[in-house]
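User: Please fill in residues for this 287-position structure.
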């Protein structure tokens, strides 16, 4: 099993961090989790063949987790994909319907390319809940509701042959029930959006500098916004990982000027395993 972080950012736009998205590869099968801004570009940068991705899992319907959905569906079809199954909360059917409503004339135009368009018009979907179990030849995915501002789900992937396991928390505050859900996982990717900020400098990407400036102009005290009620800190992520007995913790969902090293230190103060700060393109293999 191999986990590739495609996007490690949050709603404020960043050039250095795409929106939330990652691929879990089991043998030669890639499973896509979330589809935030710049997902398609990050897939190509990490040399994934778009046509090979036929299973997508959405944690929730916030823009930093699903805004590249339309881009992915149409572009991956152009590159040869014909099948797609999408799993996600209530509203996933609306997202899929919107594709064919908004882009109906685009899809009609693409009929002239002479290839079947079912990859765009015949997308299969399933709404998930705490009872959902999705099992295929190589893997089983289970689902667990977490605590966020809208219905949101964590996902666990268990590989059949290797016995390796992966958990993605989705966006959530610290919750005890995630400990049992992640019990014994090899890799836990956990929301750690609540953390100290640092000074933005001229060495930061120009887009990131301007994004943070504009964000602070309307949110001068990020730690006092409602965001802190719906996300976890580095220490809280570490506490969940330690109690669950996972081997590796990956922290993600960073704001433009979040002090990621301080956030990592918080996690390490509570977790005895390996801690990584998610960066776009980070790949972790379980062996």
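Assistant: Residues filled in for all 287 positions:
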């Amino acid at each position: 099993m191999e986990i590739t972080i495609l996007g490690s950012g949050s709603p404020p736009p960043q050039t250095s961090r795409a929106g939330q998205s990652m691929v879990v590869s089991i043998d030669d099968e890639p499973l896509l989790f979330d589809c935030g801004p710049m997902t398609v570009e990050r897939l190509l940068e990490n040399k994934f063949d778009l046509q090979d991705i036929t299973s997508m899992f959405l944690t929730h319907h916030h823009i930093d987790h699903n805004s590249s959905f339309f881009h992915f569906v149409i572009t991956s079809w152009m590159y040869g994909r014909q099948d797609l199954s999408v799993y996600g909360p209530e509203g996933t059917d609306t997202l899929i319907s919107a594709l064919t409503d908004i882009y109906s004339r685009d899809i009609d135009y693409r009929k002239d390319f002479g290839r079947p368009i079912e990859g765009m018009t015949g997308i299969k979907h399933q709404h998930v809940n705490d009872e959902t179990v999705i099992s295929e030849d190589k893997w089983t995915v289970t689902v667990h509701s977490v605590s966020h501002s809208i219905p949101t789900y964590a996902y666990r992937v268990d590989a059949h042959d290797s016995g390796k396991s992966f958990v993605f928390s989705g966006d959530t505050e610290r919750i005890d029930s995630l400990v049992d859900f992640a019990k014994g996982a090899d890799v836990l990717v956990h929301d750690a959006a609540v953390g100290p900020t640092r000074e933005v400098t001229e060495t930061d990407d120009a887009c990131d500098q301007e994004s943070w400036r504009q964000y602070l102009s309307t949110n001068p005290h990020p730690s006092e916004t409602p965001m802190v009620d719906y996300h976890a800190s580095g220490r809280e992520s570490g506490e969940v990982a330690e109690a669950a007995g996972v081997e590796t913790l990956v922290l993600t969902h960073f704001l433009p000027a979040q002090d990621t090293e301080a956030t990592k230190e918080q996690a390490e103060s509570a977790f005895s395993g390996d801690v990584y700060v998610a960066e776009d393109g980070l790949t972790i293999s379980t062996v």
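For context: The mean pLDDT is 96.
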